[in-house]
Amino acid sequence: MDDQTRIELEAAAFRGLVEHLQRRKDAQNIDIMNLAGFCRNCLSKWYLAAAEERGVEMDYDEAREVVYGMPYDEWKSNHQEKASPEQQEKFETTKPLHAKISGH
Asked: Where do the domains of the chain lie, and which CATH numbers do they carry?
């Protein structure tokens, strides 16, 4: 496979993941993070890092809007639930497995 085809396939897979996460507003970030070690915020940070590597001006809020499909504050107020003590505890115990770019 040539590089251009690989890049196009990777981009399509990313778009599919983002579209899926935008539809699954019920899937809370903390649950995704606790299970998989990354969440929508991590995807946003990876997107921002890729933009910065290519000299594209973008801030974290803009990157989050790409992933969330709306401003983060809007998503948070409409779809984010308060984390339970159990979710918070699991978040702490799984920190060593979290994505390196996640900032945790």
From this structure: 3-102 (1.10.3340.10)
Tell whether the torsion through CA atoms of 5, 24, 47 and 92 is positive or negative. Answer: negative
Nearby residues of 60 by Cβ (< 8 Å), 6 or more positions away: 44, 45, 48
Tens of pLDDT, residue by residue over 38-54, are: 999 999 999 999 999 99
Alpha-carbon distances of 19 from 44, 54, 94, 104, rounded to whole Å: 13, 24, 26, 25
Average pLDDT, integer, range 6-24? 97
